[in-house]
Write a structure and sequence with these properties.
Elements: H1 2-6, H2 18-25, H3 36-48, H4 57-79
Helix pairs in contact: 3-4
Length: 83
């Protein structure tokens, strides 16, 4: 086995380990979660209620409504060519 490992040569078509450094060094994403507050409220409710989803229906509905509105806005912006 040791003779096999000493004769091993990496495939030049495959990315080298340095490619991982590029991903680590890239800047943080500019993406923002517009419904972050509603999402956090949902998780807080779940924490308070021992993860019983039935007790957090109001928070779930608020989060879903927020996401629905946000996605509709993004679709409209794409239609207008602004995104």
């Amino acid at each position: 086995m040791s003779s096999t490992s000493s004769s091993f040569k990496p495939d030049p078509k495959l990315p080298t380990p340095n490619i991982h450094n590029s991903y680590r060094e890239k800047q943080a994403s500019q993406f923002l979660e517009p419904c972050e507050l509603a999402s956090k409220a949902t998780f807080r409710c779940l924490d308070r209620n021992n993860y019983d989803k039935r007790k957090c229906n109001r928070e779930y509905l608020q989060y879903r409504e927020c996401k629905r509105k946000w996605l509709e806005e993004r679709k409209e912006l794409r239609r207008q060519g602004l995104l």
